[in-house]
Amino acid sequence: MKAIVTGGAGFIGSHIAERLLEEGYSVSIIDNLSTGDKNNIKDIKNKVKFIKGNSSEINKLGKADIVFHAGIYSSTPIYRKDNTLVGKAISEFIAILNYCVKNKCKLVFASSSSIYNGYPPPHNEDVIPKVKDFYTEARYPMERLADLFQQMYGLEYCGLRYFSVYGEREESKKTFANMVSQIIWKGLLDKEVMIYGDGEQRRDLVNVSDVVSANLIASKSKENGIFNVGTGVSYSFNEIIKKVGYAMGKSIKTKNIDNPLKNYVDIVQADTQKSREKLGFSARISADEGIRTALEYYKKLKKVPDIF
To answer: Does pLDDT of 77 surpass 80?
Structure first.
């Protein structure tokens, strides 16, 4: 079977592409390299077809059996920096939807737990998102459009609401990387981690390997709809910093500062029932194990990002 991974040179997309190859898929990648890096696919570059371009140029890759759409601007700060990306993300998604209908292929795409901003945990898929963030205003319309294309044209799809994804190969995202990666980088450079407020904001940490498993499971499922990809457990920033410090064998330097952001996400924690019962997906990697694995990866880099 042929699979296309948009954003396949990015943090999550490169891991998806690698796993697909292991499962015997023919893999094509399209990535504009805005936050991705061809170094992320250096070990598989001779096994995949790669073209540089936006996701909307997917037709250049020919017909596929399934599309994994990971090539979407993927963090709140990106949209705060340039809010016109909301329209661009939606427009590119419509191109992906039309491609999938035309070629009768399944679609698995990345959504976000930021949709739950303003709601108390645990967060389940039935809530109606509040108006909180430009990032959300890109992802929620994508979910609705996928549902509309399913109703109108019979599109088969799964949208996956990722919680706080961390792991190897996030260095090309730099300041847009997950806070776990940023804490590890700061620790390796022996620099201070800036903490907004008291550090009691909480995140549901899900390892990139589990996220890849969720994508593969969703691709083979007969279910259509939106599903959480998280662990069901949340940790405060203070707790995460202690976990990273424990893995490193030292205390991480910290500095508490006022939060400069409006509509900041305070707590995310997945309700995992629907994903378990409908998809058969459960995260397997604990935060401690995932942090250790990520630390070993970043310790081997010649240079970790010095983001501030």
So the answer is: yes
